[in-house]
Amino acid sequence: MAESDAAPTISKKCGPYISSVTSHGINLVIRGLVLFFIGVFLALVLNLLQIQRNVTLFPPDVITSIFSSAWWVPPCCGTASAVIGLLYPCMDRHLGEPHKFKREWSSVMRCVAVFVGINHASAKVDFANNIQLSLTLAALSIGLWWTFDRSRSGFGLGIGIAFLATLVSQLLVYNGVYQYTSPDFLYVRSWLPCIFFAGGITVGNIGRQLAMYECKVIAEKSHQD
């Protein structure tokens, strides 16, 4: 009789644990997919601005979409967006520094708008030389981090993302995949790291907000149980 009573007790203890792990895995996949499609959308819109101003040039045979973008650009940017968006909250937990600065969707949307504005400025605004443009975009990108992030992990990841993304861009241009008009930083434009830095901060804030929403839902479910 005692053994029969112990079995249901064990299953009750294991049930919520397995359920929480499963739900966390599903939420992780959902967050990754949301971030992927956000990255695809931003890539199509922002790349269109660069192409319209002849900042970036692709070979004619790879232009296949109505947005005049090479077919591989949206999925690559979507994958990078998913990785970055999932990495930011993971890094916050690892460092024990939960991000609490301006944690609401309205702030995230303003961050996205500022990032689009920075990218728009790089393509539309005319400066006397590329150094002035690069310094202006660098100041705007750091201002974006200070306004919407202010975390050490966010700044460090932003710098790392800018370095790696610029290196990949250099290799792609070197191998003739696409090219920049008037390159002044080896094979690319000198302001490109600023765009990557601002993009990393923006996608990181989106990923943090999605992770916080997941934590709220799990907390509400556990409270109801």
From TrEMBL:
Q: Chief subcellular site?
A: endoplasmic reticulum
- The chain's coiled-coil residues are none
What membrane topology term does the record carry?
Answer: Multi-pass membrane protein
Membrane-spanning regions, if any? 28-49, 69-88, 131-148, 155-174, 186-206
**Which Pfam family, just one, is annotated for this protein?**
INSIG
Whether Cytoplasm counts among this entry's keywords is no
Q: Cellular location of this protein?
A: Endoplasmic reticulum membrane
Q: Which GO terms describe its biological process?
A: cellular response to insulin stimulus; cholesterol biosynthetic process; cranial suture morphogenesis; inner ear morphogenesis; middle ear morphogenesis; negative regulation of fatty acid biosynthetic process; negative regulation of steroid biosynthetic process; NLS-bearing protein import into nucleus
Q: Name one GO cellular component term.
A: SREBP-SCAP-Insig complex
Task performed by this protein: Mediates feedback control of cholesterol synthesis.
Lineage: superkingdom: Eukaryota
Entry keywords, A to Z: Cholesterol metabolism, Endoplasmic reticulum, Lipid metabolism, Lipid-binding, Membrane, Steroid metabolism, Sterol metabolism, Transmembrane, Transmembrane helix
Q: What is this protein called?
A: Insulin-induced gene protein
Q: A GO molecular-function term, please?
A: protein sequestering activity
Q: Which family does it belong to?
A: Belongs to the INSIG family.
